[in-house]
From TrEMBL:
InterPro entries given in the database record: CYTH-like_dom_sf, CYTH_domain, NeuTTM/CthTTM-like
Domain CYTH: residue ranges: 2-149
SMART domains with a match to the protein in the record: CYTH (SM01118)
Organism per entry: Candidatus Methylospira mobilis
Active site residues per record: Y30
Domain of life: Bacteria
PANTHER family noted in UniProt: SLR0698 PROTEIN
Protein name per UniProt: CYTH domain-containing protein
Classification via Gene3D superfamilies: Hypothetical Protein Pfu-838710-001 (2.40.320.10)
Phylogenetic placement of the source organism: Bacteria, Pseudomonadati, Pseudomonadota, Gammaproteobacteria, Methylococcales
Pfam families membership: CYTH
Length: 155
């Protein structure tokens, strides 16, 4: 069984930008958004993934992810998607011993920037960079599934 342990934070300021070592444009859409799990398709360049994630609130959730052909992903996003696409640029920033994924949202979620860190256990220690803002791990409004239904700019 695959477990994702992830914490999510808002970003304060722009100092993190000088630490970016890679950026990728991503598009994702949800095929369902049910109470027990979400099923999403994500594309990044010419690659695509099917992702199934438990709808558990908090830092630890079940997650299964499988690479799929890009054309299958585009077909599913075009014909099976529920709600609008989530569009974002994911920036990778290494701080101390951890890799941070900083998602800079576009479209109806523009102006939202969220930093995520994946951990090996809920108790794992990590140093918080100065550019890290308030933690939103437990706030479902910041989950991508919710942003697809209730975009940030409508709050």
């Amino acid at each position: 069984m695959a477990h994702e342990i992830e914490r999510k934070f808002l970003v304060a300021g722009n100092d993190w930008r000088k630490e970016i070592h890679a950026s990728h444009r991503m598009t994702q859409g949800y095929l369902n958004n049910e109470l027990h799990c979400s099923v999403r398709i994500r594309t990044c360049g010419e690659q695509a993934w099917l992702n199934i994630k438990s709808a558990t609130i908090g830092s630890s959730r079940l997650e299964f992810e499988y690479e799929i052909p890009i054309q299958d992903a585009l077909d599913m996003l075009g014909s099976l998607r529920q709600g609008p696409l989530i569009e974002k640029v994911r920036h990778l920033v290494r701080y101390r011993d951890h890799l941070w994924e900083i998602d800079e949202f576009e479209g109806d979620n523009s102006a939202l920037i969220v930093a995520e860190i994946e951990l090996s256990s809920p108790e794992e220690y990590f140093e918080k960079p100065a550019w890290l803002g308030r933690e939103v791990t437990e706030d479902i409004r910041y989950y991508n599934t919710q942003l697809s239904k209730h975009p940030f700019n409508s709050w």
